[in-house]
């Protein structure tokens, strides 16, 4: 994980927050005709952020050295 990965996640998080704020504003105004498409956009941004996070997590896990799980003492119950 490098600084560009963090910047991308931060940017996508900021976009999601702005889309969500817009949706809440339209919802509070009772403007459902505009709120429903905004909800779709908000959910698309949330999905994009989650996908980017998952991709980054997989990247980090693939780069991590594999280590053996800690062993339990022979007399400990499982």
Can you give me a brief rundown of this structure?
The protein has 78 residues and is an all-alpha fold. It contains two helices and no strands.
Layout of secondary structure:
Layout: H1 3-28, H2 32-63
Helix pairs in contact: 1-2
Features:
78 residues; mainly alpha; 0% strand
State the order of secondary-structure elements, H for helix, E for strand: HH
Number of helices: 2
Rg over CA atoms: 21 Å
Mean pLDDT: 91
Q: Count the strands?
A: 0
**Main sheet attributes: strand count, strand direction, barrel closure:** none
Q: What is the helix fraction of residues, given as a range?
A: over 70%
User: Beta-strand percentage?
Assistant: under 5%
Which parts are unreliable, with pLDDT below 50 for 5 consecutive residues or more?
Answer: none
User: What structural class is derived from the secondary structure elements?
Assistant: mainly alpha
Describe the protein in words.
With 78 residues, the protein is an all-alpha fold. The protein is built from two helices and no strands. Helix 1 packs antiparallel against helix 2. The longest helix is centred in the middle third of the chain and has 32 residues.
């Amino acid at each position: 994980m490098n600084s560009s990965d963090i910047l991308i996640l931060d940017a996508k998080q900021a976009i999601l927050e702005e889309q969500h704020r817009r949706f809440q504003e339209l919802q509070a105004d009772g403007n459902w005709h505009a709120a429903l498409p905004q909800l779709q956009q908000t959910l698309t941004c949330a999905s994009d952020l989650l996908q980017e996070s998952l991709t980054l997590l997989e990247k980090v896990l693939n780069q991590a050295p594999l280590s053996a799980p800690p062993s339990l003492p022979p007399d400990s119950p499982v």
